[in-house]
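Problem 12. The chain below contains 423 residues. Write out its predicted structure in token notation.
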Amino acid sequence: MVAGGFLVLGLYLGVYHKGAARAIAPLGDLYLDLLRMCILPYLLAVVTVSLGRLLRSQHAGGQLRRLVIVFAGGVLLASAAGTAAGVALGPGRNLPPSALAALGSLVKQAAQSGELDVSLSAPKVVVESPPLLRSIADTVPSNIFRALSDGAVIQVLIFALIFGVALALVPQRNSIIMTRALEAVYGAFQKIINWVNYLLPFALCAMIADHAAHSTGPGPFEAMAVFLVGFIALAAAWLVGCSLVVCWRSRQPYIASIMALKEPLLLAVATRSSLNCVPASVDALHQKLHFERKSVELVAPLAVTLCRYGPLLYYSFATVFAAQLYGVALDAHNLVMIVLTSALAGIASIGTTGVLGLTLMALPFGALGLPIEAPLALFIAIDPLLDATRTLCIVYGNCAATTVVGRVAARHEEVVDAEALAT
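Solution.
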């Protein structure tokens, strides 16, 4: 309730008092900087310790198998859902001349500003992706401290996975000191994050006010109205599905299961960074929905990294839209290519937001021989609204995936966990 009031206040300031909105914007930046300061060390410690614990447990094989199935299935499901929604809704089919003129005007404005130099009638351009082995090599950090300094999330995660496996293979009597040290690091950063979250209502107000103050106006949204409505409907259906999965797996009443995840969902909308929502998601899933901590601490960070549901939905839906706009026939082969290449682009979107993330649509566009440059102008124009929607789909989708992989802790396990923390 309090956070909702601050959101409304931020929207009011951004629309009617733009000077005040810009004045308080640094408060949102301060909150994000404090959160980013903790995220990578937190991920490094929690993934290493959780994976080590999992591999030492008796049920490691079954849980890892379930994790792979859920992750792969969720990625393909999201990509297929976006493709199917694009085909069914037809956001780029049979547009009236007024809508086509408005879309052409957006592209022309982008070209005049120097951002683009092609039009919707430009020749098709096949976009080449980097070699597979080069892409794989780039995910391995040559220096973990440099990766931490540069904010290279995927490299830090790769190091944590390798280190966690190695730590699990070392005799426990030799690794216990390192395990406890990493647990202390994780606990310390969890404390810092809890302190930082006292700023959350004020930071939400500042960030929403700043977003509203820099809005580009209704023009781009009117021109892309059919695409906007279609994607928002798709995202809403995805979020409803995720809420039903969380309700089913947590065995909580429907509204209670939604309210339990209120903090990470608000963070997703305000910060537009799924990574910043990981600590709040872990806390909500364990403390409020009572899932096993060791499972949640492992699955939630991995899910945010690998299962980019929002971009997956967006890339596949946008590719179908562009194909319809250019009059490209979508047969079964093309639809399969959209699903697979959108899945790869979605996985590659870790650490990207806004316009940088949109450039990854070059992969599914290139697979169909579609030019990316002209449609990119259209997507850039409406991105301030849909960026938050994509992040919300990532966070809620990964909470749902985590509940499918994990299980609700038994009552005696909760008591033991509480006694261990008290000790």
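Discussion. The chain has a mean pLDDT of 79. Students who got a different answer should revisit the alignment rule from Section 12.3.
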